[in-house]
Specification:
Largest sheet: 2 strands, antiparallel
Distance between the termini: 31 Å
Helix content: 55-70%
Strand order of the largest sheet: 1-2
Structural class: mainly alpha
Strand content: 5-15%
Order of helices and strands: HHHHEEHH
Shape: globular
């Protein structure tokens, strides 16, 4: 990936956060596409599967709202995950119309593989930073994400 000409150290304070995020997302997508074989899960499915992994009692409705996609798209995606043996959908005991989405053991293995690749990318993009700098970056990103969620 080639950075746009605006990305010069002397200009770093004038670059919008949006542009930094855009470049990081582009780098991540390029890395994952390069390191994903054609028989693996499509890149667009990864956020759903990882969100299920790191959420407690998430529902199909929660995923639809979170990713701002149609109910039909989410249903088809989850059906695909079920057919692969990665998830189950169980009735919510508090609301019988809702289905709680959970990873199976096979889904845990699949997300472990994905997380390993995500960690490789993260290690590559932070390789010039010390452990302390990485922790500071994570804290700052957390603060920014929390504020963005308030908008």
């Amino acid at each position: 990936m080639m950075l746009p000409s605006q990305f010069k150290e002397e200009n770093s304070k004038n670059i919008r956060i949006y542009h930094y995020v855009e470049e990081l997302v582009g780098s991540y997508k390029e890395f994952m596409n390069r390191n994903n074989s054609e028989d693996e899960i499509p890149l667009s499915y990864l956020p759903f599967l990882l969100r299920i992994r790191f959420s407690n009692n998430t529902t199909q409705k929660d995923l639809t709202k979170l990713f701002n996609v149609s109910k039909g798209y989410t249903a088809r995606l989850l059906k695909n995950f079920e057919e692969c043996g990665w998830i189950t959908r169980e009735e919510n005991p508090d609301n019988h119309r809702e289905k709680i989405v959970k990873l199976t053991d096979e889904g845990m293995k699949k997300t472990d593989e994905i997380i390993k690749k995500v960690d490789q990318w993260e290690d590559m993009v932070t390789s010039s930073l010390s452990d302390t700098e990485v922790m500071i970056l994570k804290k700052l990103l957390f603060d920014v994400v929390v504020e963005a969620d308030k908008i």
